[in-house]
Amino acid sequence: MPLHIRRLPPQACVTVDAPARLHLGFLDPSASLGRAFGSLGLVIEGEGTQIEARHAEHEQIEGTATQSERERIAICLERLKAAYGPLTLAIHVRRTPRAHTGLGSGTQLALAVGTAFVRLAGCEATSAELAALLGRGMRSGIGVLGFDSGGLLLDAGPGEPPRNAVAPLISRQPFPERWRVLLVTDHSREGLHGAEERRGLAALAPFPRELAAHLCHVVLMQILPGAAEANFAPFARGVTDMQQTIGEYFAPVQGGVFTSPDVERAVRAVAAERLAGIGQTSWGPTGFAIVGSAREAELALATARDATRGMPHIECAIVSGRNRGATVRAAESRQLRQARVDAA
Q1: Beta bridge partners of 60
Q2: Which of 150, 190, 248, 282 would be 102's cystine partner, CB 3.0–4.6 Å?
Q3: Which of the following CATH numbers is that of domain 176-320: 3.30.70.890, 3.40.50.150, 3.30.70.330, 3.30.360.10?
Q4: 129 Cβ partners below 8 Å, 6+ apart?
Q5: What confidence tier does 4 reach under pLDDT thresholds 50, 70, 90?
Q6: Per the confidence metrics, is the pTM higher than 0.85?
């Protein structure tokens, strides 16, 4: 059971900034070599989730972009109250990525709400405990592990059934500060999720053993050493190889190596002109091109925009890697601050 600590005062406001992540691929989706999944991922700056939470007389959920997002928060609160005791909160979503675009927004939002709840309740809980309670991290642990630490992460998959624990962290490498990530997203599409995702995974043929072995070698002997030594060429070639391999495997259920042909057009145009690690995060539709410097990122951005000229549904942005996890701050609520101003 989580340890109980001092409950924050009623006027406290907890702010949680949770980072987005790129899911760079599974090592062995169908356990052809004995252990299912295993994930490589990168935590990034920008595109993250920020919420504020405070004690309230009546439960409030504000700032959500969609009704489904509001419902997800309400479900999280019900599970948290059942586990840690009754607590009435006002939740304000300051920002969050569009759902089902491959940036891990569902896990970020759930962990942000859970973290704020236990802080205000005067309880302690690990991110893994919150993820298990809130139904996150059942296949990939990258979102949960990234919430804690940031960086370039490798997990070992969730292990043998019952898979009710977050996949263990196998490696964490700091992402080199000079390297940049070009994100390309298609606002006209969503990635597979929910029941559709489960049906898609069930419909796939077993992942070939030789490909699982190949991906393990690429990750352990190209991608991770490349990051550790800030040696961009093997890192970029390894990421592209991994993404092409896993993308071809998922192509029958997502419509191609990339979910969005227009995103594919943009990132392949970048790779045709310069060394870049390209691919799609999770089920897309967001694609990426990792490049070796800020200057290369600006050139890649120009190339991607030129390749998608006349496509208003395509958005491109440059971000950095993030070598730290979520931040949590407790302060006086906005209402109390305003009351102090009014009384002055």
Answers
A1: 90
A2: 282
A3: 3.30.70.890
A4: 2
A5: very low
A6: yes
